[in-house]
Amino acid sequence: MQFYSSSALITPFKKDLSVDEAAYEALIKRQIFQGMDACVPVGTTGESATLTHKEHMRCIEIAIET
């Protein structure tokens, strides 16, 4: 039997309340470096209910690109 681990990501914001894309990418890279097999972007810990559709999609794009 093989086991995998994934982590639900937070969504970092700048002071102006826009998504901090650089911090978000760094967070994903840190999770991968620490051995996560997968990351879960914009889940319930990712403040998805407060993001616009465009922000939501951008977070997913960053996760895929990273």
From TrEMBL:
UniProt keywords, alphabetically: Lyase
Annotated GO biological process: N-acetylneuraminate catabolic process
Stretches that traverse the bilayer: none
Keyword hit for GTP-binding: no
One Gene Ontology cellular component annotation held by this UniProt entry: cytosol
GO molecular function term, any single one: N-acetylneuraminate lyase activity
Coiled-coil regions listed: none
SUPFAM superfamilies: Aldolase (SSF51569)
InterPro entries: Aldolase_TIM, DapA-like
Name the UniProt record assigns to this protein: 4-hydroxy-tetrahydrodipicolinate synthase
Keyword Nucleotide-binding (UniProt): no
